[in-house]
Amino acid sequence: MAPSAVAFDEGCIVPAALSEEGIEAITAAFVQAAYRSLQAGFQVIEIHAAHGYLLHQFLSPLSNRRSDRYGGSLENRTRLLRDIVSAIRNVWPENLPLLVRISTTDWVEGGWDIEQSLALVRQLLPLGVDLIDCSSGGSAPHARIPLGPGYQTSYAEQIRRETGGRTGAVGLITAPAQADHIIRSGQADLVLLARELLRDPYWPLRAARELGHLTAWPAQYVRAAPPHTPAFLPGAAGIKK
Ligand SMILES: Cc1cc2nc3c(=O)[nH]c(=O)nc-3n(C[C@H](O)[C@H](O)[C@H](O)COP(=O)(O)O)c2cc1C
Fold first, then answer.
1. CATH class for the domain made up of 20-210
2. Could you identify the atom of ligand 1 that is nearest to the CA of residue 173?
3. Vertex 224, ends 204 and 199: CA angle to 5°?
4. What distance in Å separates the CA atoms of residue 209 and residue 25, rounded to the nearest whole number?
């Protein structure tokens, strides 16, 4: 299922265009998922509206060719995400963070871009979104993406500066000093790492040591920690058993 019957690339399956009832069912499913997350004890949720997944497909003119109230104008293409955010905010407690990940650009002429992202973020912030996680790409198979250290960070910085909303930076952030600089220089409020954490699951502890922070270690690891390392006890940091 997709907004429109448009295949991602040559040789890919042509999806069926969602009916209005199908769209409503998807909104309800997102709300159910948020509710189950709360019941399961999660304290943060992130709505995935990036990387070519369904909500990004609705945003991008490359994949959304609808002529009803979910397609065409920017207002219409952002409607499903706005509806889902509003509906989730009704079940997700006000004091718990709600994040939205977006692809800030499709990296393709005529696709979703930073200007549309800025407009979207200005719509999302008043609906109770606490942070925009700024990724990119995923909707165009032949997009030319200028990969390099921190290649998406400037979008997090621009969205933060121009909308006043909090942002997260992600993408080829690997060095503690790089992550520290992003936060200190006000480019983003949060740094997210994926592959570097797969390579080095202890990255946060290593980063804390390199940056000279005395960070608590899990109590059962303290015997292996540098001298004077405080123990982290469940409960002390607000984590409920
Ligand atoms: C194994 C793997 C699985 C991933 N799964 C997801 C996912 O489910 N949702 C998502 O938004 N990004 C996913 N990503 C992308 C990462 O969240 C991140 O945006 C991307 O890898 C760039 O950050 P990095 O350079 O720190 O890896 C995945 C990445 C990897 C390597």
1. alpha beta
2. 26
3. 35
4. 48
Residues with CB under 6 A from ligand 1: 48, 50-51, 101, 135, 170-173, 193-196
Calculate mean pLDDT across residues 10-27. Answer: 97
According to DSSP, the β-strands at 45-49 and 98-103 are parallel
Residue 127 near residue 120, CB atoms below 8 Å: no
Q: Are 88 and 126 in contact (CB under 8 A)?
A: no
Ligand 1 nearest atom to the CA of residue 198, by list position:
31
pLDDT digits (tens, 9 = 90+) for 108-118: 999 999 999 99
155 catalytic? Reply is: no
Report the residue among 195, 198, 200, 203 best suited for mutation to probe ligand 1: largest number of ligand atoms under 8 A from its CB: 195
> What is the Cα–Cα distance from 111 to 108, expressed in whole angstroms?
5
Q: Write out pLDDT tens, residues 162-179.
A: 999 999 999 999 999 999
